[in-house]
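Retro notes
What went well: the complex prediction finally ran end to end.
Inputs used:
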Amino acid sequence: MRRKIIIFVIVTVCYLLQTTLFTRLSFASITPNLLIIVVSAFGFMRGRKEGLFVGLFCGLLLDIFGGIVLGAYSLLYMYVGYINGFFRKRFYPEDLKLPLLLIAGSDLAVNLFIYFFMFLFRNRYNFNYYFLHLMLPELVYTMVVTIFLYMIVLKINQRLEAIEKRSASKFV
Amino acid sequence: MKRKSKFVLPTRYILMTMTAVCIAGMLISFTLNISGGPLNSVAGYVFIPMQRGINTVGTFLSEQAGRLKNLTDVMAENEALKQQVDALTTELNTIKLEQYELDNLRELLELDQKYPSYEKAAANVIGKNGGNWFSNFTIDKGAEDGIETDMNVIAGSGLVGIVTDVGPNYARVSTIINDTNKVGGMITTTSDNLVVSGNLEHMNENMVIDFSNLSDSDDEVRVGDAVVTSYISDRYQQGILIGYIASLQMDSNNLTKSGTITPAVDFEHIEEVLVILNKKQTAED
């Protein structure tokens, strides 16, 4: 229960920052994607199941307030969380390379899907433009934010796991 | 090792179930054109107050920063504005004369006022949600304030967009520069109709949006002509300024023209908007 509440708070804070503060801090009208960091991080830190639910929740939030059709972002983010969950076995908290690589990959994958389904299907063929002026800047900005945000999420998760371990050992 | 008392569903089954739920949700909201429903209410009461709070703080801070603007800047601006006032007063006088003439002519024709003054409600923009791909935002007025889907949203004198979804205390607005949006427009000088469509690429590059299907057989439309919403549009009220023609060229079919429009609204810095509470009457209503 404690974990659920804390994840809810993290997602809420990130969503609010993404839609309010970071739209004012945008460079060349590009805002970073904070939610994908959270989804991806919980995926590889905690496994497929938790990644799936965090992704679903984040996606639902985006769907309600700014989506295309209800369920589209939910589906996309859910799969991102789930697929990141496969990398839990290779995840070590000390290693920063894998998280950065996974988050970058997730962000790029989400954008490619949006381009493919929402732009290419409507005859917007100029992939180079969208890649260079939209996906790449977002990727770079997101990675800059990741370095801070991921550390915070990692610390929160480690604290949570420590508390959970303690309270679990009481019952043995 | 203790046996687990509760049956745990494997993750891949959860994934399959939720995938089915999401696809069903997409199909339902796409075909029946409904959204959220109770989800909107819950989300509205949880997130909107927080967004509103952050927005208030942000506005306060940017106002404080604005006050520190250099005095010389303000004085120079004052000078420029005085000149503008003079110019505008002259223009106003001319327009007054024309208005008088127009009133007379209208009386003769027994026309009602052509553009009735719409009832409007002011609202604040509290969050931009479309990510980098889409241009839509949330405003802090919703169904409780009388906002409904398909109401037009303006800022200053220009068209901003249309309400696409309403929660109890918020509404989602999709702007005319949104890549997926289309508006039926009309050239004021020649009354020729055209289709205005948002374009992310052109908006980012040159701050313009596209138009197409303009049939200008007499070749009278010029760069700089004002484009307003058309009387044939079924969602937009007639006569709201969209923008000005920035460029135009003949299509390859040699019948219609297409080109770009500079929007009348500065979409980068929208903070307050007006929602027109009258909805366009259509034959179905």
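What we learned: Chain B has a mean pLDDT of 83.
What to try next: split runs per interface for comparison.
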